[in-house]
Amino acid sequence: MANSTRKQTMQKYSQRRCQQRLTRFEVLGFASDRNVIRQIAQRLARNDGEAARLRAEPRCSLIGEPLEQGGILAALRVSPLVGANLDLTREITSGRKIVPFA
Fold it and tell me: Each residue of 11-38: b (16+ CB within 10 Å) or e?
C-alpha cells in the first residue's frame, strides 16, 4: 500500500513539473561542486532575468554563441515594477549657487 501511495505522489509531482516545463537532470560531478550545481539549477528554474544571464554566459564561453542584444530591455520588461504607474517626474530647479574657494 505504501508503494502505491508513493507512486501516486511521484506521478503528481512529475505532472506539476511538466506543467511548469521543468525537467529532471542527472549530472555527474565532484562532491565539492554539489551545492554550486544545485544553486545554479534553482536559479535557472526561477526563469527570471538572472536565469537568462546564467544561461547566456556558458553559451558564450563554451559554445561560442554571441551574447544576445537587448538584455537590459528584457530585464526591464520582466521587472516587478511593470505596470506600477510610478510617478518618476522630477522637480525642475535652477540649480545651486556655486561659491568659489578663497
Answer: eeeeeeeeeeeeeeeeeeeeeeeeeeee
The pTM (predicted TM-score) of the whole model is 0.46
Per-residue pLDDT, 31: 93
Q: What is the model's pLDDT at position 62?
A: 73
CA–CA separation, 55 and 44 (whole Å): 8
> What DSSP designation does 28 have?
-
| CA 3 centroid distance within chain | 36
Q: How far is CA 94 from CA 88, 90, 97, 98, 100, in A?
A: 19, 13, 9, 12, 18
4-17 pLDDT, tens per residue? 898 888 888 888 87
